[in-house]
Every structure is written in C-alpha cells, then in structure tokens.
Predict the structure of Solute carrier organic anion transporter family member.
Amino acid sequence: MAKPENRVATHGVRCFSKIKMFLFSLTMAYVAKSLSGTYMNSMLTQIERQFDISTSVVGLINGSFEIGNLLLIIFMSYFGTKRHRPLMIGVGCVVMGLGCFLMSLPHFLMGRYEYEKTIKPASNLSSNSFLCSGNRTQTLMPTHDPKECIKEIKSSMWVYVMVGNVIRGTGETPIMPLGISYIEDFAKSENSPLYIGILKIGVVIGPLIGLMLATFCANIYVDSWSVNTDDLTITPTDTRWVGAWWVGFLICAGVNVLTSIPFFFFPKTLPKEGQEDNVDVTKSDKEVKHRGKAKEEKHGITKDFLPFMKSLFCNSIYMLFILLSVLHLNAIVIIVTFMPKYLEQQYGKSTAEIVFLIGLYTLPPIFVGYVIGGLIMKKFKTSMKKAAYIAFCLSLTEFLLSFFYFLMTCDNFPVAGLTTSYDGYVQPLYVENIVLDDCNTRCNCLTKTWDPVCGDNGLAYMSACLAGCEKSVGTGINMVFQNCSCIGSSGNSSAVLGLCKKGPDCTIKLQYFFILVLITSLIYSLAVIPGYMVLLRCVKSEEKSLGIGLHAFCTRVFGMNNFLTHQTNTILIVFNRNIYIGVPAALRGLSYLPAFFILKLMRKRQLPGETDSSETELAETKLTEKKTECVDVHRSPEVENDRELKTKL
C-alpha cells in the first residue's frame, strides 16, 4: 500500500513543477524586491532626521544597495546556472528579507526619538523651507548636556541601515538573471515573451505598493507604540517629524521571506513546457543525461567563465544592445526624476495632484502594453528579426510623438533670481551672481534650495528665506510667511507656499499633455517586450544568464547620470523646457544609431536563439514518438503485466 501513497505524493510535488507556477512565484519575487527598493527610497528623509546625518551620508546609504548588487551580479549570473536556480532565488529572497530586518533593527536598539533637542517648537517650518535668520537667534539649540554625546553614539547606528541595504542588494542578484534564464530554458519559445511581459508588470506593481506603504508609515510617529501620541506638539508637516520608517522595513522583510518559500519546492530542471505528459517515457534517459552533465559541471564549473565573457564581448549585437540600453536609460532617468517638479512648475499644480495624474495616465497603458506585446509575439510566433523591427518602429514612433511635448507648455513662472530680477524685470535663466539681492544677503540663505513661495506681489521666490521672510504663521499647506523684505519695500509683505497660480489655458494644455503621455506610454510598453526578447535570443542558451547579469551591471554602472545630483542643474531642468525635453530627446536620438546597426547585423546572421518554432515542435514530436516506439519494442510481456498490476493497485 506504500507505492500508491508515493505516487500521490510525487504527483502533488509535480504540481509545483509547472512553469506557470514558477512564473507566478517569480512575479511575486519581482513585486517584493521592487516594493522594498521603492520603500527604501521613500524613507530616506525619515532616516536622515532619525539619525541626524548629512545628505552625503544619506547618499552613501542609498548607493550601498548598488554596491552589494554590482559586486555579485556577474558572478552570480554565471555560477548560479551551474547550481539549483530556484533554490538560489529562494535563498536570495531570504537574504533580502534579512537585509530589510537589519535595516529596522536600530529602532529597537535606540532610545526614544527626542525631537525637542533638534529645532525649537516655535520655528514650525515646512519640510524644506528655512526662514531669514539675519535678525533672529540661531534656530538650533546649543546644548552642553551630556545626553548630547549619547545622541551622537546613537546616530552612528545608521551603519545598520547601510549594511542591511548592502545585504538586500546582494540578495537581489540571483532573481532576475536566474529567473529569466529558467523561464527561457523550460517555457515554449512562443510563450516566453508573454511570461517576460508578466514579470515586467510585477516590477510596476511593486513600486505602487511601496509608495502606499511609505505614505502610510510616514504619517505614523516613529515611537507611537512607546509614547502617548496625544502629547506630541508636532505634526507630519513639521521638519522634526519622523515617521515609523522601521515598520515598513519589517513588512518588506516578511514579504520577501514569504515569497521565497515556493522556490524551495521547484526542481533543478523541468520538462519543456508542453511535454509534461511524456515525462514518464523519457525520465530514465533524462536522468542519465543529467548525471553526465552534472559530472561535467563539477569538473568544469569555472573553466567556461572567461570563454563566456569573451564570447559576449565579441558578440556585436549584444554589445550594441548594451550601448543602446545605457543611452536610453539615461534619458528615462531624466524624464522620470524631474517630471513631477517640471509639471508642477509648468502648469501650476500641486505635487500630490501631479503624482496622482502621472500614475493614472502611465501605469494602466504600461500594464496593457506589456501584456499585448507578449500576446502578439505568442500568437504570431514572431521571429527575433521581426521582433527587432517591431521594437524599432514602435520606439521610433513614440520618439517622434514625444516632440509634441514642446508645444504643450506654458510660460515660465516669474521667479526672482531665476527668470526675473528682484525688481520684476525679465532676465536670462539662472545667473549665479544675482540669486542673492540686497534684501536677502543678510539671511544666510541656501542658493540651491527649491521650496518656492508666492509673494503677494505676484512674483515667486526660490524659498521663503530668499524672499526675506522672517516669521511664519500656520502649519502645512496653510502656512503664511510674513515680514518678507524682498516682496515689499516696507518689509511687511507676505508669501504663501508654492508657486503662483496660472490661468485656465495651462489646465487645458495639461490635459493634452497627459493624453499624449497615455498614448506614448502605450506605444513604448508595446516595444519593450519584443526589444527585450532580442537581448535574450542574441546570446547562446548557456550564456543567457551571464548575459542578462552583464547587461544589468553595465546599465547600472553607466546609467547613473551624475549631473542629476547637482541642485543647480535640477533648477535649470525645471525651468527650461528645452533642457528637460531636449536632453532626453538627444540621448534617445543617439540610441537609435546602435539600434540601426543591430538591425543591419541581424539581416546577415542567424541568432543563437533564432529558430523556427514550428520546425522545432515538429522535430520534438518526432523525437518523442521515436523514443516511445523504442520503449514499446523493448518492453517484455512480464514488464507489461507488472505495469498493469501496479496501475490497478
């Protein structure tokens, strides 16, 4: 009676061996890793306040993820294919969870956050505004209390966050290269594009959840479970407020660990999709081949690394694709990074409203585009050469349509020190030596801070400090700055947060802008899957995982746009539509040069992954039939009777 039980158990485990189950698990892992990354980026401000660290240290913490990821991604992409890939992915998810847990650990090792020792309660500033300090006492409290030394020791616990972020980066390394190569190896060639499109959707869903989680945690006080929140004298709009950043990291840790569980049940290899019914017939043959292959891998696990790397670097299509990706990624980074500020300035809307509209008009078409792009390649069994042409034509169409953004703009706000002088006269954009004026030189203002206010004279200023405002009344978005020496000669004029309002024409142009965003996002997402499949199929199957890892490494190293870190250029991009739209257009235009050469090279050569799917299926069917016949010929009557008896039992 033991044999039937074993048969049932084996069948139960086999349910986990389906490629679609693996796809679902990998999509959840994509959601979990992008959720953690988005939440981390959203909580940097809270971490900066909690540990009282400089902006440079915050940048180090944020970049530590790339350090952990880049150090291992190439080697993991190669060595991971020699091992149990699902198991490696599961371990990676657990390591990511461990990193997120370590990032939350300082909260439990530190004492209560004492906002009273940072800024006086009377200051009541907005998140990034600083008032004119020329005629006032210093806002920071000079203290010689010995407890201050304890605070300095506690603030060094930001190292836990940095180390946890490094660990999170190392844990993410096997997910993308090993997961995609596993799907490519065991999925039908015509189904693979659809599966990759579903994975891409997971990358989009994760940040959405991460932003919602960050918003939720930022509005909860960091010590809500250990203090009486009714006694707090600050609100989330105060610069001293620190949200419960650690809660989200614990949630991310749990999500990453949960997503790891299914991967421990997947086998090292799967039957090719569509051939699951023939597993029993070919099982013994595959086991023999697998043992022989395992011995070869054991003896030559490192000898292929350098030849594989040489083969990839000598693959002209692959290297051109990397160059194309780097140029394209830099353009996308500029667009995504500065779009909220650019639209806020151009159309006079609040940041919250702009972010909502961006999500509303970009995410649904991206979802649809990824799925349709994969379905089209599955339905028509598109060859890689046709896929390359489809991706090129769609991307070029979207690129040409993007030039209409130049027509959907409003006039720049009159901003003192940028587009106009402090007297209201129009001037060339951003001249460094006139950002300061006689009315604010005594204020010790930061000249590269962008937290605009609108004066009652109709002129905007880069910050309340540069407007010469000495005090504020109210909180949050209702805050009013008073005694602004730059706004009125008497010094009694006032200003409110945000840029000055624009006319109804800008609202109509904003609607046209987002309609164009919806169309271009759909076309762009339709081109993503065919283009990515060219990358996957232009390399040999044994080099696929390493190729994906090397591509990710190059795009992350060379795709980090250095000038994004400089606030001066941020202001330039925000106020100059030609720079914001023109620079990405120039980079994308350059990316079509390697794309053109890729199409030219693909005409002349056969790609390693380029096969006619119908011929492949026919060959596989004939091979299976032949093996079945051989088994039937060599099957003895005694074996037949024994098999029938086992079936009846």
User: Anything to note?
Assistant: Residues 613-648 form one domain.
